[in-house]
């Protein structure tokens, strides 16, 4: 094979078909057009298959009753599992919506409770209560010695059953 300086040289290998010689040297800095070599090929001949090959192909294509039943049961199981999965997903979605609804109800009840508590707190006039206790009911502030501290024994309330011991 001879080297060329402008075109790549095509050669035909023993396997068939054409390919280009990769070792051709191209001088210059511009890309050259390649010569496209085509070969008109004959359609491949059909080879006669042996009896064993034909038998193996027929056996691979053939589906017996056991295989069809196996595929049917597998398909039914997959469908059952998928339906169960979709049902669980819908239950989870419904639960999330129900929880969101309950949370919004809780928040609105908390707001209403806080507003009612603020209204009650603002309605109480401690000075008016003091005035009624002193003038109308005759109550007085305690004097020294009248207040007794009881130690906390862990109970919720203290009940005095008699006069305190001095």
- Uncertain regions: pLDDT < 50 for 5+ in a row? none
- Overall pLDDT, averaged? 79
Structural class: mainly alpha
Radius of gyration, rounded? 50 Å
What is the element string, with H for helices and E for strands?
EEHHH
The N- and C-terminal alpha carbons lie at a distance of: 133 Å
Number of helices: 3
Instruction: Summarize the amount of helix as a percent range.
Output: 40-55%
Q: What general outline do the C-alpha atoms trace? A: elongated
The strands making up the biggest β-sheet line up spatially as: 1-2
Number of strands: 2
Strand percentage lies at under 5%
In words, what does this structure look like?
This protein is mostly helical and 166 residues long. A two-stranded antiparallel ribbon has the order 1-2. A hairpin with a 7-residue loop joins strand 1 and strand 2. The protein is elongated, with a radius of gyration of 50 Å. The chain starts with 9 loop residues before the first strand and ends in a 30-residue tail after the last helix. The model has no long low-confidence stretch (mean pLDDT 79).
Task: From the structure above, extract its key features.
single chain, 166 residues, mainly alpha, two-stranded antiparallel sheet, 3 helices, elongated
Map the helices and strands.
Layout: E1 10-11, E2 19-20, H1 51-61, H2 65-123, H3 126-136
Antiparallel strand pairs: 1-2
In short:
The chain is mainly α and 166 residues long.
């Amino acid at each position: 094979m001879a080297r060329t300086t402008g075109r790549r040289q095509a050669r035909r290998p023993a396997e068939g078909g054409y390919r280009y010689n990769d070792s051709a040297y191209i001088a210059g800095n511009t890309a050259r057009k390649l010569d496209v070599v085509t070969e008109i090929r004959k359609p491949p001949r059909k080879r006669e298959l042996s009896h064993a090959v034909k038998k193996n192909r027929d056996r691979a294509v053939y589906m017996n009753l056991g295989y069809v039943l196996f595929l049917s049961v597998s398909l039914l199981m997959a469908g059952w599992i998928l339906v169960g999965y979709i049902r669980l997903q819908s239950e989870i979605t419904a639960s999330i919506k129900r929880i969101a609804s309950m949370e919004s109800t809780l928040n609105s009840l908390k707001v209403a409770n806080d507003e009612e508590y603020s209204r009650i707190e603002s309605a109480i006039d401690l000075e008016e209560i003091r005035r009624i206790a002193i003038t109308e009911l005759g109550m007085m502030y305690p004097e020294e010695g009248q207040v007794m501290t009881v130690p906390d024994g862990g109970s919720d309330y203290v009940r005095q059953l008699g006069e305190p011991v001095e």
